[in-house]
UniProtKB/TrEMBL annotation:
Positions annotated to bind Zn(2+): 16, 18, 196, 277
Annotated protein name in UniProt: Adenine deaminase
Organism in which the protein naturally occurs: Microbacterium dextranolyticum
Gene Ontology molecular-function annotations: adenine deaminase activity; zinc ion binding
A GO cellular component entry from the record: cytosol
Xref: PANTHER family: ADENINE DEAMINASE, ADENOSINE DEAMINASE DOMAIN-CONTAINING PROTEIN
Function: Catalyzes the hydrolytic deamination of adenine to hypoxanthine. Plays an important role in the purine salvage pathway and in nitrogen catabolism.
Lineage: Bacteria, Bacillati, Actinomycetota, Actinomycetes, Micrococcales
Reactions catalysed: adenine + H2O + H(+) = hypoxanthine + NH4(+)
Protein family according to the UniProt entry: Belongs to the metallo-dependent hydrolases superfamily. Adenosine and AMP deaminases family. Adenine deaminase type 2 subfamily.
Cofactor or coenzyme needed: Zn(2+)
Residues noted as binding substrate in the record, renumbered to the chain: 278
Residue span(s) of domain Adenosine deaminase: 11-326
SUPFAM superfamilies (alphabetical): Metallo-dependent hydrolases
Taxonomic superkingdom: Bacteria
Length: 326
């Protein structure tokens, strides 16, 4: 449709994208063969059949084991490069990409292989695709704060390759406060801060208050249930805080896209953005998320253009580079 063509053509930043969530079944087989790994499935269709999630827990139970095929710097490069090629087709001109080093170092893959491969793809994207690509180191919240701090220390050697830090995985029983010291240290090292505040989890609105008031993040991933607390919405708006929403992902890990919440915040002038989260698993890259949200919520071209403007304003580009896009 015309609106879909408009959505694809809009220059946009993608701010909520897990590189490990871009592993398409075809590449999974290629990497498995390269590394001599025998997969439980024998065809792309069989792999896709396992992408049948009802909630975050059932998603993560498929997501982490799939990473076994990622072993060398070349593997990480190939994964990120495949994503960046897709991103180019989706109108992405700037990407801030999450990676989960602990999902690899915990199975004895060196940190240097992970970040070395990803960084090589990011540099290549600038040179060959004209996409500026940055890395955000995400801590896994179901591991200990000590492991997170050790990972941060290991990352300092690569500081110039990392724009910020985030927090993902299972939020239940792993509130932001568990990582307060890690994020305070990351901030003092000059990293931007963001955290997943997932939806539909008990106590989630309290976590949003905590990340805004105490940890003082620069952005929130998901977090659209902030609409439950008008005072927090007012605070987020005053700070110009970005929210990285992922409608198609929401429809997998909850029962719906959360379109009402996203559009409520958009209409109130809060910096909500649209992103793909784990596109290989949820079957939609970023422009397809714009289209899905537009179809669900009846958005028009002006709304989609505002979402794209928000994506640059909520990005961690330097002010001069950001202003070149908006
Ligand atoms: C994730 Cl959908 C989702 N939620 C939490 N952590 C994640 N890591 C990758 N995808
Ligand atoms: Zn995410």
């Amino acid at each position: 449709s015309d609106l879909a063509a408009f959505a694809f053509g809009l220059p946009k930043a993608e701010l909520h994208l897990h590189l490990e969530g871009t592993l398409e079944p075809e590449l999974k087989f290629e990497l498995a063969a390269r590394n001599g790994i025998q997969l439980a499935q024998t065809s792309v269709e069989e792999v896709r059949a396992t992408y049948d999630f009802t909630d975050l827990t059932s998603f993560l139970a498929v997501y982490y084991p799939a990473m076994e095929v990622l072993q060398t710097a070349d593997d990480f490069h190939d994964l990120a490069w495949a994503y960046l090629l897709r991103a180019k087709e989706q109108g992405v001109v700037h990407a801030e990409m999450f990676f989960d080093p602990q999902a690899h170092t915990s199975r004895v893959v060196p940190f240097s292989a992970v970040i070395g491969g990803y960084r090589r793809a990011a540099v290549r994207a600038q040179d060959e695709l004209g996409i500026s690509a940055e890395l955000i180191l995400c801590f896994l919240r179901d591991f200990s704060a000590e492991f997170a701090m050790a990972t941060l220390m290991e990352a300092l050697e690569y500081k110039q390759w990392i724009v910020g830090v985030g927090l993902d995985s299972d939020e239940r029983d792993n509130p932001p406060s568990k990582f307060a010291a890690v994020f305070a240290r990351a901030k003092s090292e000059g990293f931007f801060l963001t955290m997943h505040c997932d939806i539909d989890q008990v106590g989630s609105i309290d976590n949003i208050g905590e990340v805004l008031r105490d940890i003082r993040v620069d952005r929130i991933d998901h977090g659209t249930n902030i609409v439950e607390d008008p005072a927090l919405v007012a605070l987020a708006k005053e700070r110009g805080l970005g929210f990285t929403c992922c409608p198609v992902s929401n429809s997998f890990v909850t029962e719906q896209m959360k379109a009402d919440e996203i559009v409520t915040l958009l209409r109130e002038g809060v910096r909500v953005t649209v992103n793909s989260d784990d596109p290989a698993y949820f079957g939609a890259y970023v422009a397809e998320n714009y289209v899905a949200l537009a179809a669900q919520a009846g958005l028009d071209e002006a709304d989609l253009a505002q979402l794209a403007i928000n994506s640059f304003e909520a990005s961690w580009l330097t002010p001069a580079r950001r202003d070149a896009y908006v």
